[in-house]
Amino acid sequence: MTINEIARMMVSTERYQSQTAQPKLENGSLPPKGHVNPWCPPGMDITGMKQSDFKIIPVSKEIETRLRDMALQNMKQYYGMSPPSGNERGDTIRAYVMTLPPEDRANAGYTLNQIRLEEANRLCDFVRSRVPGWQHGQAFDTSILDEYRQGVDVKA
Fold it and tell me: Of 42, 96, 97, 107, whose CB neighbour count within 10 A is largest?
């Protein structure tokens, strides 16, 4: 193969790739309006969204209770830390969110994460009210959690 043949092959390859390639984005720039992320289920692409773009929406009481129970179990087993392996919480949220219409999915995921975060914060406040100076990950007598009531703040 001569150098001219190699050059022609490279030019035709480059031309083919530029026709089929997606637009190249500068690092940190957003895709063009109307772009569909082929690797993300409909309604789950949050590229370019800000915190203020999300809103709390109604979710089923069943999933809400399940997430609160998971937060309590994590407090009992891991003393306020995340489990060392697996992503049960994320899998639970995703399974529920995927049952919703695409336009509600991102907001439902946000809502469920807020519920879980609020419950985890309540649990931490509750433990600190019984064990002054307690820090995440520090062992404590988990029997004090028998007095805990979901969704009830201990702050006066």
Answer: 97
Whole-prediction pTM: 0.74
pLDDT single digits (tens) 33-74: 777 788 889 989 888 889 999 999 999 999 999 999 999 999
How far apart, in whole angstroms, are the C-alpha atoms of residue 112 and residue 116?
Answer: 6
All residues at 6 or more sequence positions from 151 whose CB lies less than 8 Å from its CB, including other chains: 68, 119, 122
- pLDDT value at 154 more than 60: no
